[in-house]
Design goal:
The protein has 825 residues and is an alpha+beta fold. Helices cover 48% and strands 17% of the residues.
């Protein structure tokens, strides 16, 4: 019996090549999309689950609630917080911390720019990264030690054994006036080699160095400061401990710590109300920390996973609907075959089994084609996501079974209704008329076409809106000129040599201007401060150290007053990590328009006003225009600009457009003369801007690809249904032509028949797309408005595509001679 069923199924596939091709190709595209979506979701949900002993390991994250400012979410916390928790909260059994510091590692006569993870000596005992050489307890016990990943060790030492080898880094914690110190070096001994951290991790961990080393650049003052949240921190809780109970016990600690409220007695808010700490399970960090700034690696989100999973499900649904629609249509032409089978004794169960088997066979053929497509496109998929995605059929047997199950389910879903319909045919009626007598089948086919095109139109609208928002964000007036600016990291230089380096660069013909600052656009690196009008409540502000040339270099508009001057001593301000200093009394600052408005002043009125800034009386001498340093995602924040040349970490260099390539080489050479032991870290500001919307662009591209696939599958199905419908209406069309219908009348009739389901699909897709896209756009501070024209464009495109799909069939049937049509059976 099985052999008989298989023979009939193969014969039907061969005899009806067009319908077989449409079914197999459409379902294969849907299954290929499903496989890619499953691979993506598997990778996203696998982050850090490979780390041993992480069930009780949590990451500390922090939200800062400040008056007059939006909530600031940080993936990092103050250095002093974790040990305070361990000392006073019994449920906290171990803590460890990490801060990333850019350094130049010298091996022999070669220099390597590296970002070193400076960690507590117990880091590898708390976060159990697998070691190839060395022990977790001893690897970082020595202050001047370093642990390397496999790839980094190979890069430094080739095939030689790295254990016991030495590398050197530049001296740290030099006095600001000690120019000789910065050319010194510190030797570190390699005491361990780790396995490479996989890409599915929140950690990078190429180089680990203990924070007990003198090479650590973080000062002891910063480590004691509870308002400097720059440290990735992890804690282990006791078995059965409740994370929420631990957070509740942390609140009294924060409230009594000096400095928890900016050391400002006028800010009468408890520290625990300002700093809200969260405990995130280690394996959940990747998908739970998208809202936090300063993540070590790009964070994912459940919102993205849900969206992509929904899109993948919709694509498979479109393919299954396509399959079911064509199978239902073809079932009408097999009425006589079923009737004869019933006459010779076939039972309904046997017929259902036969036709479900045919559907599953087609689904398995589609699966084989889909797997071939995945194998071909997987390298391109890796490049698109920027990470390696692997699929081994035997090694990933659970995933293989899932995909096989999806194919079987698609075959059963696509074939269940036709099988039930076919098995119900009454032999006597069918043998007299050779029709099925199923009046509801056309309504079902129309319903399935509506579903297909509703999905396609919805995805099409999403694609249009995503690309328009990205284009809007890229073209948004940021309030400054970002073109042809190179940003250099000058942290390694002392203040006097930073200024000398900037002066040297100004003499180069291709350099238009240079300016020192402690933050630059698009880097999310602005610190926080507090300002108030004496006797009134205050607001929190962002604070940026800028040199006198910063406003001119970036083209910041001076709305009122003046900018800083190098010749005026009272224009300088000592940056004491946001805390007051008597030396700052009576000195000058600049603010932006947003800060002036928050303080209750018009820009012109703010000039000359005295305010309290971090507890010191300072004068406002200038108001700069609002600038969007963080792009379209964040609103403009009230900002204070101050000048402290000793606090500069970045040097911005504006270069003439023609000189950019040549000047990059010149910058490297000039830097080597000032800092021979340190590699120059630099980037183009335009490149940093380009990374802001990379994830949104990928989402838009994914929507675009899914739209193309969904529409292609829908059109394949519509093409098959059009062929079937026009064939079934041949005699009707012949009669219409005999009574005077013209070719264009017949074509219009057929086009209208297929237009109704598409128009209904638009009515369904529009409100659903509006709801989703409205929510997505709320993630941008500056965004487009949802335009009804975009919805109409997507709907019109779907309608036009449907017309093109059925037009060939309609014209062919409409042009046939009536005599041939009337003879048609």
């Amino acid at each position: 019996m099985f052999r008989n069923y298989l023979t009939i199924a193969l014969r039907n596939i061969v005899n009806h090549k067009l319908y077989s091709f449409i079914n197999i190709a459409g379902l294969a595209m849907g299954l290929a999309c499903a496989i890619f979506v499953i691979l993506f979701i598997r990778d996203e949900t696998s982050y850090d689950k490979w780390v041993p002993g992480s069930t009780r390991l949590y990451k500390l994250e922090q939200a800062v609630h400040l008056p007059g400012n939006s909530v600031v979410n940080n993936a990092t916390v103050p250095f002093a917080l974790p040990p305070a928790m361990q000392q006073e909260i019994p449920e906290v059994t171990a803590v460890t911390r990490l801060v990333r510091e850019g350094m130049t590692i010298t091996v022999g006569n070669r220099q390597f720019p590296e970002v070193i993870d400076v960690v507590d000596p117990n880091f590898l005992q708390v976060v159990q990264l697998p070691l190839i050489s060395g022990g977790a307890a001893a690897a970082l016990a020595q202050p001047e030690s370093v642990v390397l990943s496999e790839d980094t060790a190979r890069k430094f030492f080739g095939t030689a054994n790295p254990l016991g080898q030495s590398v050197t880094v530049a001296s740290a914690k030099c006095d600001k006036s000690d120019d000789a110190c910065e050319s010194g070096s510190i030797e570190l001994k390699v005491t361990g080699v780790m396995r490479n951290v996989p890409t599915n991790s929140q950690l990078v961990a190429d180089v680990l160095m203990p924070n007990t080393s003198v090479a650590d650049r973080v000062s002891q003052e910063q480590k004691r400061d509870w308002t400097s949240p720059w440290f990735y921190s992890y804690v282990i809780l006791a078995p059965g401990a409740d994370p929420q109970a631990v957070i509740a016990k942390l609140a009294p600690i924060q409230d009594r710590i000096e400095g928890a409220a900016f050391r400002n007695p006028r800010l009468s808010i408890r520290g625990s109300r300002i700093y809200q700490v969260y405990l995130t399970p280690f394996a959940d960090v990747h998908l739970s920390s998208a809202r936090y700034a300063k993540n070590m690696t790009p964070a994912g989100s459940w919102f993205t996973i849900d969206g992509i999973a929904t899109v993948g499900l919709l694509i498979v649904l479109v393919a299954c609907v396509n399959f079911m629609n064509l199978a239902t249509a073809r079932a009408m032409l097999r009425a006589r075959e079923i009737a004869l089978r019933k006459c010779v004794g076939a039972g309904r169960r046997q017929l259902i089994t036969q036709f479900l088997g045919e559907s599953v066979l087609i689904a398995l053929c589609a699966l084989a084609l889909a797997l071939a497509v995945v194998e071909i496109l997987l390298p391109f998929y890796d490049g698109f996501l920027g990470r390696p995605i692997t699929f081994h059929y035997l090694g990933d047997w659970s995933l293989s079974l899932l995909i096989f199950g999806i194919a079987i389910a698609a075959g059963l879903i696509g074939g269940i209704y036709p099988a039930l319909v076919l098995s119900r045919f009454r032999p006597a009626t069918v043998l007299r008329s050779n029709i099925s007598g199923q009046p509801g089948s056309s309504r079902l086919r129309n319903l399935l076409v509506v579903l297909q095109f509703a999905i396609s139109v919805g995805l099409g609208i999403a694609t249009i809106v995503v690309y328009k928002q990205i284009g809007f964000a890229r073209d948004l007036d940021l309030g400054f000129d970002r073109s042809n600016i190179v940003v250099l990291d000058v942290t390694e230089l002392t203040p006097s040599r930073r200024e000398a380096f900037a002066q040297t660069l100004r003499t180069y013909p291709g350099v238009i201007a240079t300016a020192l600052s402690d933050a630059v656009p698009f880097q999310n690196s602005m610190a926080l401060g507090f300002v108030e009008i004496p006797g009134k409540s205050g607001i929190s502000v962002s604070r940026i150290m800028i040199g006198p040339d910063f406003a001119a270099l970036y083209g910041l508009p001076v709305v009122a007053g003046r900018i800083f001057s190098e010749t005026r001593g009272d224009d300088t301000l000592i940056n004491n990590n946001g805390h007051g200093s008597p030396a700052n009394e009576g000195h000058n600052i600049l603010i932006n328009v947003a800060a002036a408005i928050q303080l209750g002043y018009a820009p012109q009125q703010a000039i000359g006003k005295t305010i309290l800034y971090n507890g010191n009386h300072v004068n406002i001498v200038g108001v700069l225009g609002d600038v969007k340093f963080e792009g379209a995602s964040e609103p403009v924040k009230p900002t204070v600009y101050f000048y402290d040349k000793s606090d500069a970490r970045g040097l911005s260099v504006r270069i003439s457009e023609q000189a950019v390539p040549a000047m990059l080489t010149s910058l490297d050479k000039s830097w080597h003369a000032f800092a021979p032991t340190t590699y120059l870290r630099r980037f183009l500001l335009s490149d940093a801007f380009g990374t802001l919307y990379r994830d949104d662009e990928k989402q838009g591209a994914m929507f675009g690809i899914c739209v193309a696939i969904a529409i292609l599958i829908a059109c394949l199905g519509l093409f098959g249904i059009a062929a079937f419908t026009t064939q079934r209406r041949t005699k009707e069309i012949g009669i219409r032509k005999v009574f005077g219908a013209r070719t264009r009348d017949v074509v219009r009739l057929l086009l209208w028949q297929f237009s109704i389901p598409v128009l209904i699909a638009n009515a369904i897709a529009w409100p659903i797309a509006y709801f989703y896209l409205h929510h997505w756009l709320e993630g941008f501070a500056y965004r487009i408005l949802l335009n009804p024209i975009d919805f109409l464009d997507a709907g019109a495109a779907a309608l036009g595509i449907s017309w093109i799909t059925v037009l060939a069939h309609a014209i062919h049937v409409a042009r046939r001679r009536p005599i041939l049509a009337l003879r048609h059976e």
